[in-house]
Amino acid sequence: MATETLSANLAGVLGPILGSATEIDNLRALTGGASRTTWAFDAVTGSQRRALILRTGPPDDVHAGMELEAAVQKAAAAAGAPVPDVLIASDSVETLGNPFLICGEIAGETIVRRIQRQLDDDGRATLLRQCAQALAAIHRAAPDAPGLAKQDDLVEWRQRLDEMADTTATFEWAFRWLTEHRPPASPLHLVHGDFRMGNLIVDGSDLAAVLDWELVHIGEIYEDLAWFCIRAWRFGAPAGMAAGGLGSIDDFVAAYEDAGGATVDRAALRWWLVVATLRWGVICRFQAERHLSGQTRSVELAAIGRRVCETEWDLLDLLEGAS
To answer: Which of 123, 171, 182, 228 has the fewest CB atoms within 10 Å, measured from its CB?
Structure first.
C-alpha cells in the first residue's frame, strides 16, 4: 500500500477515536520482519500531536491475531506488566490491507548492544530485576482472552523439525533425552512466547515496555524463564550473565519469585533450558531452509542457518554428563 493511501486510511481508522479532524504526519517504516511490519507516525488532531506505532502483517496459522495481541496486552497491563497502550486492533484486512494494531510510541532502546553499552553493574541489576517483575506479572495475567491456545513446546518443535525432513544427531539426542526426562507438568499460565532482550524497550536502566506478543499462548512459566536465559539472547555477554546478558540465572529466578512469580523448580528449569536451546536450533535450521529452498533468498537467513552448529554445542554442553 502506498504511503499516501496508508496515511489516509490511518486517519479514517483513528478519526472516531481521536477526532474527525485527525491527520497523519511523518509516517515512516521502521522494520519489515518476516511476520510483522512496524511503522511510526504522528496523529495530529488540532493542536494535539500524538506519537503512535502501527504494526501490520498478513494473517497466518503461527502468529497470534492482532485482536488477541491487544487483549493479552491489556490483561498483562492489568497484572502490572509494562506494555504499550493499544488504541485499536483489528483482524480485518479491509481497512489497511492486513490485520493491524495501533499503540502509543514508547521512548527507549531495543537494540541490545546499545543497551549493554549504557549499563553499569547497578543498571544491569536493576534491569534484570524489572524483567523478572514484568515476567511474573505476565504469568499472573488472566489467560482467558478469546483465541488463546495451549502449546506444548516439545511437540511443537519436534513437528517443525520433522516437516523439514532434516535433522542432526545432536538434535535427535536432545529430543530423546527430553522425552525420557520430562518433569511433571506445572500449572498453566499466560506465556509471552518470545520474552527476551531485543523484544524489550529499555529507557536508561529501566524496562519501559514488553513488545512482540505474536507468539503468546497458554503454557508453563518455564517456557518464558528458560527462553530469556539461552546463550543467543545474552548477545555476547559471559556465561555468568546468562539471564539476558544482565545477571545470573539464579538472580533472575530469585527476583522472579520475589516479584510474586510461582516457585521455580531448578531441575525443571534445566530441562526447559534444553528445550529452549533446541527450539532456537530448530528455528535456525528453519531459517536456513527458507534460503536454501529458494523461498526467500537472503544472506541474513543463510547466516542464521550457520548458527545451527552453535546450538548443537550449547546442547552438548547442557547435556554433558546426562544419563
So the answer is: 182
